[in-house]
Amino acid sequence: MIGAVAYGLLHSGAETADSTAAQWLPAQPQPLENQLGLVGRIEAATRQTLSAPFEGVVQQVAVTEGQRVERGQHLLTLDTRQLDIQLRQARAELLKARRTVQEMRDWAHGVDVARARRAVTNAEFTVNNTESELADSRRLFERGIVARMEVESLEQQFRLQRLELTASQAELRAAQARGPGDNRQIADMELANAQACYDSLDALLAQRELRAPFAGIVLRPQKSDGPGAAVAVHQGQPVSQGAPLLELASLERINATARIEEVDLHQLSEGMDVQVTGDGFDGLTLRGRVLSIGAQAIVADVYGDGSAYEVIVAIDPLAPEQQQSVRLGMSARLAVVTYRAESGLAVPAEALQQGQNGSTYVVHRKALNQPSRKVTVTPGRAVPQGVKVSGLEPGFVELPKTGR
């Protein structure tokens, strides 16, 4: 009994000495994640400049700069008086072209052909009458009743009338030929052009009221001839076709734009998950993914230390309450998840030891009341919790005392 007590005291003393020499840390499966921090700004994923569809005058402006609008909301109305004149002219040309095509379709029974046909009939009638008179005059001449001069005069008249008949027949054939063929195709093409012109103007008339193509914020458009914003559009302002009137920045989808240094570029790839936070929308954590990484440097270090590249992060669609807190231009902190394992074992780097054969091992216990043993492991990626290792069971690893 005394020997057993003595053995227990000695064994307890050994454990105490061992515990002062090393520290045992738990090694349990857990999510492992690496993050790369970037700083950027919130921007609209979609910006669209709304231009004047036709030349006219601004009749009404229904929104103000900075106002939030919903999809389909009325923004602006243009006066259409000048367009109405053009539309009426196009309508007149269209009606003329339709009438011409219809005349071509009914050309064989049209006025020109009928007139030419009547001319031929009249010429034939005249020729027949003169021919009959000439025959009578010749018989009377043979009997000595009429003079030769009268017969010769009728012969001359008959020849001229035959020429007129030939000419009228040629005119009839020419009139009949004007209906089909190229003339018909020309009339059809002119009708098609007139119809297209009218439809185009009619479509422009339907755009006299500009409406928001998506939910967003109304902004002043950028100048077309240089940087900066253009003058705000106002009622009564004359505008030319294509002139920028308003700019709409989407709130349905937003991006975060940041820069990454060249030395960190290898850690990034498209599709990586990103968490976005910011002082302006404190308390909210937005989620998204890396949408694109610039292929060309936007900032080059003149001293040769590296360059910066643009990174665009597509943020998941915002809920209505989030849209009230997040505003364009706000600064944002981006945490890009460069590596994630749902379940892995990580140990402190100090727990990794080198064996005589060059292998890496840790001193491991399944439980604190069980004996320790050396376990060969394969080190992997460095993570905030330490170094991910494979070949190790859950339990405890020894963190050797400094200087051991």
From TrEMBL:
GO terms for cellular component: cell envelope. Residues 50-221 form the CzcB-like barrel-sandwich hybrid domain. Pfam families: BSH_CzcB. Keywords: Coiled coil. SUPFAM superfamilies: HlyD-like secretion proteins. It is found in: Cell envelope. PANTHER family: BLL5650 PROTEIN, EFFLUX SYSTEM COMPONENT YKNX-RELATED. This is RND transporter. It comes from Stutzerimonas kirkiae. The lineage of its organism: Bacteria, Pseudomonadati, Pseudomonadota, Gammaproteobacteria, Pseudomonadales.
